Amino acid sequence: MFRPILRWLDERLDLDGILAPFRHKTVPTHKLTYWYFFGGITLFLFIIQVLTGILLLLYYRPGASEAFESVQYIMTRVQFGWLIRSIHSWAANLMIFTAFAHMFSVLFLKAYRKPRELTWVTGMVLLFLVMGFGFSGYLLPWNKLAFFATTVGTQMAGEIPIIGHPIMIFLRGGPQVTGATLTRFFGFHVAVLPGLVVVLISIHLFLVQRQGMSVPPKVEAKWAANPALCREMKFFPNFLLRELMAWYVAIGTLGALAALFPWNLGVKADPFASAPAGIKPEWYFLFMYQTLKLIPAKVWIVDGEVLGIVGCALIALFWLLLPFFESDRLARTKAWITGLGIFALAYVIGMTAYGYLAK
Amino acid sequence: MGTSDPGMANPSCPLHPPALPRRGFVKFLLGGGLLATFASFIYPVLRYFIPPPVANLGVDEVVAAKVGELKPNSGMIFRFGSVPGLLILEADGQTYDALSATCTHLGCTVQYRPDLREIWCPCHNGIYNLNGGNVSGPPPRPLTKFDVHVRGDEIYVSQKAEA
């Protein structure tokens, strides 16, 4: 049935020519090949976010007087609405987790080395945007926790010297977090961020496609010494089918989590109520939050808060530009970058755990 | 014995491959599993598309207006539950008409035209008479007529009692 259609298209578009690069693409095969899956799983979760996000838009209404009620309506009145929302929340968290896993795996496999600096940079920007998705989406149900998370988060932006205050006003749409903030965050979440992310994912994937998969330095050295050890598999269908299996596992995990642990809605935001005790940000902001909590109010003559936030921003900038500190030559790769990566991973895990346990 | 033994393979008859080869069986399992997975995704989504029923605002009777609110030879729109209705006071100043205000063509809200003494839909120039009959233009069906009762100084509009 499809054959005549395919032939018709092929005569006009040269499908074989379009698909040829995918046919020739290979994936290096070694014991660390499995780490290559995380980027694809993140992409898959992003696709799920787009689809479930569109579904939520069928019933969601932005606005301080309607947002909470509309989410409540989705969860209680719309058939399977609780499931769709739960999948959207869980997939968001899993996506941030897999994006971090992808970032650290690329770091430890040293896949960011020349010529893949731009792939790393676009990937890091994507990671920041994904966190922006998390931050903006968190406010949309307009519940108590979200209200204070947004107040604190935008206040932090306001602490940056000189440019901070205008940024905070821009984000909030006024001096306080109000319905105006919700409208803005809604716009960022459903229009601005998705547009940016789609463009960056396209560039990121184009670069991956163009440059092929990186081989970790140790494996590369081994293969260079003894070319007979070199192993590769075809991207299509061999690697793609393995990736699809990973996606299948991801969606199974997601479905189980969403169905067994439905996401809570909480209570409606009230700008004139006190912040609840024990309030904490989502886990992916927890390490930064805990760090800021530990910095004293005054460090020498600098405000502790300012120091923490500017410090975080500088570290993020440094992380973005990490490949440019690496050596071009295989034999001289910098061990300190790996060391720093291990320290960062340990720090993030440690501070997250501390943040959870701390009162 | 030899070839006539039913339990022995007949050497002159080559073994046929099984009707469902192993590869086909695995493909069937895999394809069936994926299909079932897909169905389990699509089913909740299709159900999700169905908007939950709106709290029924369908009423039998409303107070459309007060006596004196309408001048003779004019009309006004009133809420009949969740849909608009049209109340007309005819030129004689005595007779009230109440009808559904939703044009039967493509659902615009109609209005009373004092100059024509008819009901007019501006969207596609449909004309109805005061009994709701579709007189000219595209409307395919008449407008639904309601009953009008004046009690005291209030004008009540109700669904026509089933004949």
Q: What secondary-structure arrangement, pairings included, does this model have?
A:
The complex is a heterodimer of chains A (359) and B (163).
Chain A: H1 2-13, H2 15-24, E1 26-28, H3 37-57, H4 67-76, H5 81-108, H6 117-139, H7 144-158, H8 164-172, H9 179-211, H10 217-225, E2 232-234, H11 235-260, H12 283-294, E3 298-299, E4 302-303, H13 304-320, H14 335-357
Antiparallel strand pairs in A: 1-2, 3-4
Chain B: H1 22-49, E1 61-66, E2 74-80, E3 83-89, E4 96-100, E5 111-113, E6 118-121, E7 126-128, E8 134-136, E9 145-151, E10 154-158
Antiparallel strand pairs in B: 1-10, 2-3, 3-4, 4-9, 5-6, 6-7, 7-8, 9-10
Descriptive notes:
The complex is a heterodimer of chains A (359) and B (163). In chain A, the strands form two sheets. A two-stranded antiparallel sheet of chain A has the order 1-2. Chain A has a two-stranded antiparallel sheet with strand order 3-4. Helix content of chain A is 69%, strand content 3%. In chain A, helix 1 packs across helix 2 and helix 4 crosses helix 5. The model of chain A has no long low-confidence stretch (mean pLDDT 93). With 359 residues, chain A is an all-alpha fold. Chain B contains one helix and ten strands. Chain B is rod-shaped and about 105 Å long. In chain B, strand 6 and strand 7 form a beta hairpin. The termini of chain B are far apart. In chain B, 17% of the residues lie in helices and 31% in strands. The model of chain B has no long low-confidence stretch (mean pLDDT 88). Chain B is α+β, with helices and mostly antiparallel strands. At the A-B interface, helix 5 of A face helix 1 of B.
